[in-house]
């Protein structure tokens, strides 16, 4: 099938082509997909509410609902989290909710379950005017409360065209499997909208466990849309599988995860760097931690006075330079090196501290594999807390003495690099750093680890 724009992907696709498949590999044809979009669109067109939130586990029902809302000229809202309290917190942004069985407690009075839309009436669909269809996504909340980010379907369509231009030939006709949610921009683009536009069948459900990635359908061409968290966990499981392509985004991929992908999945992943605000910014295949990033061909880049990246991008705005908090070096051949985020610099006792730098120094110690450092309020002052994953040497060291003595040893070592205010005062040792489905650290989850009184 040839590539179709989002404007008419429901109108012009071959009707017998498979749009998706379930766990038993039963296909859903484009003819069924088109009929379902028409049916749901007819229902939504008669509803007075303008802003509709989507919360779905099933990616097929999500895709139908997403495009039905677009054709009904509604404003699409995509909460990144379907937990009751999180949804309630975001409820001011939407008038009604369309959902499947994933929602247990409703955050608003007006809610419709997808399976209850049984109208036999079908809407007559016209090509979408993409710059007139709006959607709201939310930042991950990794540093603060999730913030709403408004986009148009035109901006998403620009990015999808770029993805197909870059990687369409390599992905080919492979089936699309995923470990990430379609409720965030990475999953929305890579696992649902791009496959729809390019005519590639996608799985209705997510891979949840590494075993599924390693053992699933060895005889088919497959592309994997994955998170750094699951790639890293492949090391703990036996098996091998061959993928046409592997993509990783949503958080930093450790070199161990890139190595595991090559060993277990036949190739190193293409890491995509970006955000909800910017969409994709650049990509790389990581051979070593210092491997350079390449900008998407459609982008122009420059650095501001603080050495932070500014972008001129059709994924954001063709005419306005967009400032980021990404501290970078720009190199030849449209390549760049990421050096951290300026917004992870805080002030404690009038001294500027980089949380990224503190994490780096912790991970240089032989006792620590991973670290996440956050600011905390304690006795009316700001201190640092560190959530750490111990190495084998760290576990052995802590067993030989007490936790208190071990924390003192860590602080003593850190004094070689850090000023006293930059040394964490509180530590929590965990098996894994808490991550969301996109592989991102959540500030709230990290803070919760320090809520007990035992240090």
From TrEMBL:
The keyword Ligase applies. It comes from the Bacteria. InterPro entries: AMP-bd_C (IPR025110), AMP-bd_C_sf (IPR045851), AMP-dep_synth/lig_dom (IPR000873), ANL_N_sf (IPR042099). Keywords: Ligase. Residues 16-283 form the AMP-dependent synthetase/ligase domain. PANTHER family: ENZYME, PUTATIVE (JCVI)-RELATED, PTHR45398. This is AMP-fatty acid ligase. It comes from Aliivibrio sifiae.
